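Researcher: Here's the sequence for the chain we discussed earlier.
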Amino acid sequence: MNSLALFPLSAPLFPQQSLDLQIFEQRYLTLISRCLKSEQGFGIVQIREGREVGAAPQIFQFGVEASIVDWRQQANGLLGITVVGKRKFTVRSTSVQADQLLLADVDWLEDEPRLPIPEYFDGLQILHQQLCEHPMVARMGLAEPQCSCELGWHLCQLLPLSVPDKVALLSMSDPEARLEQLAERVRRLGEE
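Model: Thanks. This is the structure I predict for it:
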């Protein structure tokens, strides 16, 4: 078990994916400063109930370690950071500091196997290529997925899925089973 400071968000971070954040609350400015000095990460979890600002929210059990890869002062004067998702974890318990920063005892989950993408997921690969042609996605500079887990994480980040769906996909440990679930969700999106 390890202790990890948490950054609850309404949008998740997935392993191997990047996310830009704007930092303005003092608790998170302190956290980011501490992480940059110690070259350590923090955990990103999805909010179950509550908001990103103010009192500590209720969170889902699964999260991803975030590693800071870039930081800058934005035009509005706020701190901007870019993080990349690393290891997945489950939250065992949480505590709230006086400044409402959430700390958690976490269990690290095993890395997923880098399995080849089966041919029957060609439709998901085509969808990924089409999504990458959109100008907003093209700016993200996503590399061509080389394995099932990479394709799954890219699609989890890009598709308009519900919060419970994203958490369910994050909680899975089998990359091919995740692709099967994504294919089903894409089929349902197409019916809406």
